[in-house]
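Q: Hand in one record:
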Amino acid sequence: MRYTAPLALAFAASTALASPSNSLHVGDSNDNDHSQINIFKTANKRWDGAICKGKVTPATFPGLVTPSEDGGCVRYYQGIDMTGVVTTVNIYFPTVKSACDCIGLCIKNITTCTNWVFKHTFAPGLDHGKRTCTLYSSPNLPTDVTLAYNLSGSVNFAELGANPQVGGLAPLTFTDPALTQQDRFGVSGFIAQDQNSNIYC
């Protein structure tokens, strides 16, 4: 009888070691019906609030992934400048007249742009008093993160104007140089391209 417990434990251990691969396959097959895993069942409803429908479309930008040919973008923040720095490119009016133009420029420069913002930059003689499109290659760094770049090992950093770059709260967009009046028509967002060259905005 003294061997029964060790044998039982050995059997339990061998069963446990043999079961993960099977349970993983079972789990994967049932994930579609698991409400805590499949959180995307109503995800397409977010496109009800998409911006630039009819302007940023798969027909205009091949590879853009949207639920319909109307296109549009859902990865945006109204009144907030969620963009970072790293590389910064400003495009002024009249080259850019709307946020949709700005998104389009980021998509056209997908290999160097992941973030865009359409906001007042208060650049006399350049912006004609209109909002500016700024393209970036990184998102806003969080408050407790600072990055310093080794330029000798970097590429495509000609537009790098701040080094090191200090994180902070995401700034709002403003209508006045004193930064006291929030601009509710300022907007920023993200662009991404996956390994299959599909584009998301």
In short: The radius of gyration is 24 Å. DSSP finds three helices and nine strands in the chain. The first strand starts at residue 76 and ends at 78.
